[in-house]
Amino acid sequence: MPKTSQNAEKPPAVSVFVPYYNDRAFIGQCIESILAQTRADFELILLNHASDDGCRQIARSFRDPRIRHIDMPSNLGAGSGVLILEFLKAARGRYAKLFCADDMMRPDCLERLAGHMEAHPETDVAFGDMEYVGKDGGDLGTKWSLRRPHFAFGMSEAECLGLLIRGISFMPYPASIAKTEVLREARIDKSMVMMLDMSIWADLIIKGKKFDFIPDAVVNYRVHENQTSSSKRRDIAYRRTHFESVKYCDIFYSIRDPELLKSVLPDSKFAGKIKAGETRAEIFEFAVAEHYLGCKNSPYKINGYAHMHALMQDDSARAAIGGEFGFGIREFREMYSKPEPHRKSAKEVGLGGLLFLLLRRLWIIVTFKGVRHKLRERKAFTE
C-alpha cells in the first residue's frame, strides 16, 4: 500500500496533484511555482512513483505545511490514471488541480481557476490557456490556444464531444481544474497514457457535466525531449495511441441522449433517426459502432467491427436494430466483405495532385517557421 503523510488542518479549497517519476531536472521548479501562488488555500499532494534519480529528496526538501506526500512502493509501469485514483483517495479540497512535474504554474493560476469555479458554481470542469516554454523555461512565443487548431474558448459540451469522438486532443490537461467529487465520478482507465485525459473529459461530458474555458494563460507548459509526445519518443507514443484508441472508443457507447448523439455525429444517417425518449442501449450503440465502421483510423474501425459483431450476436439487440434501422447480419456481412480503399500511388495521384501536396507542404513549413526555429534551438519540438 502507498504511504501518505497526513495533515489534519482545515480542508483546503484546492487539492493540487503532482505525480513525479525521475523528474530531478524539473520537480524543484514545479513545486516552487505552486508554493508561490497568490491564492494560498490549497494542499499540494506530491506522489513519488518509485523514482530512483534523487528527485524524491528534492520534493521532500520543501518545508511547507500544505504539502502532503504519497510514496508508491513500486513503479506500476502504468499511466497516470492509477495515480490519479490514489490522489483522489487523499484529496480533501473542493476542487482538484491535476498537474505535471515538468510544468510551472503562473503565480495567479489557482486564483484564476478556483476563482472562476466559485463564480460559476454550475461549472464542473474548466480549462485555462498555456504558454509554451523550452527546457530551460524560456518563452517560445506561442500558446496552446494558438498551436491547437481545434481549441476555442466558449465551446459547448456537444462541440467538445464531437472532437473527442474523432480522437482529437485539444483540452490542456495541465491547465484544468475540476470539482473533486465530479472527478471521482469519472471512469478513469488505469493503464492509458496517451488517451487518458481525453477519456476522462469524454466520460464526464456524456455524464452531463458542464465544461468551461478561461481565456487566460495560467500555466507555463514545458517542451522538452523526454516528454512522451516529443519527437524523440514519437514511435513509442504512436504505438501506445494505436492500442489505447481501440479501448478509448468504448466510452462513447454510453451516450444515451438522442440530441447529444445527433450533435456529435451530424453526418450519421442512423443517429439522426433516433427519436426523443429512446432508452434502448443497443440503438445508441449501433449508431456509434456504425460511425466507427466508416472511420479511416484503423483502431477505431477495429473497435466498430468488434462492437457491431457483439450486437449482432445478441438476438434481442439484433431484433431491435433491425426493426428500427432495417440492419442485420446480412448488411453487416456486406460491410466487412467490401475491399478496403488503398492509398493512391504517385502515378495515380498525377502531376497536378503532387504539385498541390508540395505547395501545401511548403505553406505549412513557412507558416510555422518561426516557432519551429525556436523549438529547434532547444531540441524539443513536440506536437
Shape: elongated
Strand content: 5-15%
Gap between N and C termini: 37 Å
Helical region count? 16
Please state the structural category. Answer: alpha/beta
Over the alpha carbons, how many angstroms does the gyration radius reach?
23 Å
Description:
By secondary structure, the protein is of the alpha/beta class. It is 44% helix and 15% strand. The protein has 16 helices and ten strands. Strands 1, 2, 3, 4, 5, 6, 7, 8, 9 and 10 form a ten-stranded mixed β-sheet that branches. Strand 2, helix 1 (27-35) and strand 3 form a beta-alpha-beta unit. Helix 6 (157-164) crosses helix 8 (196-206), helix 6 (157-164) packs across helix 10 (258-264) and helix 11 (281-293) runs antiparallel to helix 12 (298-313). The longest helix has 22 residues, at 346-367. The two termini are 37 Å apart. Residues 366-383 have low confidence and may be disordered.
